């Protein structure tokens, strides 16, 4: 027996994808450029776990996010998880 989720995943729902892109818009141009490049390269292959990690990162202030994206600081505390490290690696690769 397989479980069928009652909600659409990020990839299956174009409205969720559009909302995530809108939410990712930042006040700092540097963040916007990196996140836009990230979406252009990886949006089609993001898992729901990737989307959840990205949503957590988007809760950070612009300056905190920029420090992580530019590797001026590393993940710590509750954010330092394997899925978050994977996502940050992808963001830094663009």
Automatic annotation (TrEMBL):
Keyword Cytoplasm carried by entry: yes
Major place of residence: cytoplasm
GO CC list: cytoplasm
Record localization: Cytoplasm
Pfam family, one: Sdh5
SUPFAM superfamilies assigned: YgfY-like (SSF109910)
Matches recorded under Gene3D superfamilies: Flavinator of succinate dehydrogenase
Superkingdom of origin: Bacteria
GO biological process, one term: succinate metabolic process
Keywords: Chaperone, Cytoplasm
Entry similarity comment: Belongs to the SdhE FAD assembly factor family.
Protein name (database record): FAD assembly factor SdhE
Organism: Cupriavidus cauae
